[in-house]
Amino acid sequence: MTVSLIMMAAYLLDRLIGDPRWLPHPVIGMGHAISALERAIRRRVHSDRGLKRAGLLLPLIVVGGSFALGWTLLRLLAWIHPWLSVGAEIVLIATTIASKGLKDAGMAVYRELKAGDLPAARRELGMIVGRDTQQLDEPEIVRGTVETVAENIVDAIISPLFYALIGGAPLALAYRAVNTLDSMVGYKNEKYLHLGWASARLDDAANYIPARLTAGMLVVTAWVYGHDAGRSWRMVRRDARLHPSPNSGFPESAVAGALGIRLGGYNVYHSVRSFRAYMGELVRPMEPDDIRHTIRLMFAVSSMFAGLCLFVSAGCYALGWIQ
């Protein structure tokens, strides 16, 4: 019961203040650690086989170290005073969530589109996606924003909350380390194919359950907000597994079906054009308000999940299954 209350407080804290720039963020430390370890590995290992072995070591050190540091810090603070540990755990879990940051990023693109400033909208989108944005028209800018917000409902909100419920701040930090590793080394290119393979697969495994929970909750919230819940469910069943990621297709197809738009298509990365499978049906053209609708669905799903966790924990507490 205590863990679920702490998790709920952390979620509300992130909704209110997000990640202030003046506050040290664990993900920045994780990023520095990953970069330092990668440099050390590449200085000593030069064969593909050696890099594959190092690819196993990298997540063990970073993920295990994140969990151990979080656990040790909370133990030390609890030894000083229990409330210090509770406060620190709320703050630490909040740093693993990015609901406000995701909303702010999406709305920054939305505002520029509504103002008719396409160059500014492209710049704002370029801050949150890896694709080239310089030549995108309005529908493609909307598509990129909706895809990013939808995909990150899992990575930035539901998964951290899921692991916080299971193992508190230490496990939420461990998940964030997994996600950071994937974003830095989990690429299937020449540079990271061998070093990043384990990190990429660990991220896929970590998000497997949360992604499918998210898709189900998106269908429910689509119905609540008057979107097409039936089509959302059909698109999840039809299109989710067409995505190159085993998890990202679930929230993207659910959002596409709910709004009656089609995500996926051609993207350009470093001047190289590539195709990503379509998600959803093009019932109508995309428009800037689809960004706002997606953000509203994101908040509805995250609130539903946090409330569901609290409800389940309260039931288990009342039955005497947990303390």
Question: What would you say about this model in short?
Answer:
This protein has 323 residues and is mostly helical. The protein has helices spanning 2-17, 26-44, 48-80, 82-96, 99-114, 118-126, 138-185, 197-224, 229-239, 249-259, 289-318, and strands at residues 263-269, 272-279.
Describe the protein.
By secondary structure, the protein is mainly alpha-helical. Strand 1 and strand 2 form a beta hairpin.
Supply the key terms.
mainly alpha; single chain; two-stranded antiparallel sheet; 11 helices; 323 residues
Biggest sheet overview? 2 strands, antiparallel
Helix/strand-derived class? mainly alpha
Spatial order of the strands forming the largest sheet: 1-2
Number of strands: 2
Shape: globular
Strand content: under 5%
Mean pLDDT: 92
Low-confidence stretches: none
Tally of separate helices = 11
Radius of gyration: 20 Å
